[in-house]
């Protein structure tokens, strides 16, 4: 099992009230699988993805990466673990507008100091971004193109897992399907594990398993 979580609880306090968002969640994904987490707005998908992506600590419960229990208090080690093993693609592209397309893809490599320019170019071509875009500032790109650059950036350190939060919600249906086919294709050729949150059944159908998050409880369904 590449990534698993057991008995995860997470609540948020606002003033005197406290909302329990995740109530004893259990989650498993095997290496090379693509899984969807579905749920209505506010059901806690992003909260769960932040925990699975080792960005946030649960109130209780454990997360395991490659069988190893995560120690959320060791922030330095957590950051290294994330940088080496997890790629992120978020809803609002999260590209840095002032940087070029190529520089955006290279960003995660700046942390470990191994700047892989040729590999970045190869990945950009692989996600369908042509050479003429490489040195353009990323704000010139369309939503779908930005998402493809974000995927190339997520892949640059050869992560074992890609965590993607509603990657298709700001692009039209046709581009959303193209993006999912691309993710599926990349996941199969790199044997990457992909965890994706979505509101859409159509998007979830591209995945091997679909989890449903509702009222803090997670259930799952095999899509084969
Ligand atoms: N940092 C926070 N502080 C307080 N409340 C939060 C915080 N993060 C999330 N919440 C609350 O937790 C609940 C779940 O939010 P979350 O963003 O995880 O849902 P979601 O399913 O991803 O929603 P969407 O589909 O709209 O992105 C919401 O009620 C939200 O307001």
Automatic annotation (TrEMBL):
Any GO molecular function: ATP hydrolysis activity
Entries under SMART domains matching the protein: AAA
UniProt keyword terms in alphabetical order: ATP-binding, Nucleotide-binding, Transport
Keyword NAD: no
Coiled-coil positions: none
Source species: Desulfurella amilsii
Keyword Membrane included in the entry's annotation: no
Ranges of residues in domain ABC transporter: 3-224
Stated name of the protein: ABC transporter, ATP-binding protein
Pfam families in alphabetical order: ABC_tran
PROSITE patterns named among the record's database cross-references: ABC_TRANSPORTER_1 (PS00211), ABC_TRANSPORTER_2 (PS50893)
Protein family according to the UniProt entry: Belongs to the ABC transporter superfamily. Macrolide exporter (TC 3.A.1.122) family.
Top-rank lineage group of the source organism: Bacteria
Cellular component, GO annotation: membrane protein complex; plasma membrane
């Amino acid at each position: 099992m590449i990534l698993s979580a057991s008995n995860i609880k997470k609540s948020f306090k606002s003033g005197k009230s406290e909302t329990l968002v995740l109530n004893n969640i259990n989650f498993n994904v095997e290496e090379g699988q693509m899984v969807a987490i579905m749920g209505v707005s506010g059901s806690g998908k992003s909260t769960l993805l932040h925990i699975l992506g080792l960005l946030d600590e649960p109130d209780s419960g454990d997360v395991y990466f490659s069988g190893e229990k995560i120690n959320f208090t060791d922030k330095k080690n957590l950051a290294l673990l994330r940088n080496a093993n997890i790629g992120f693609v978020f809803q609002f592209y999260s590209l840095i507008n002032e940087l070029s397309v190529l520089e955006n893809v290279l960003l995660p490599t700046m942390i470990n100091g191994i700047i892989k320019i040729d590999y970045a170019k190869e990945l950009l071509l692989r996600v369908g971004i042509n050479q003429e875009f490489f040195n353009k500032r990323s704000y010139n790109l369309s939503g779908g193109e930005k998402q493809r650059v974000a995927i190339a950036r997520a892949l640059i350190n050869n992560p074992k897992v890609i965590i993607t939060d509603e990657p298709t919600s700001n692009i039209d249906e046709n581009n959303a399907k193209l993006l999912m086919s691309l993710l599926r294709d990349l996941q199969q050729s790199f044997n990457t594990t992909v965890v994706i949150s979505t509101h859409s059944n159509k998007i979830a159908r591209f995945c091997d398993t679909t989890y449903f998050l509702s009222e803090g409880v997670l259930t799952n369904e095999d899509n084969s």
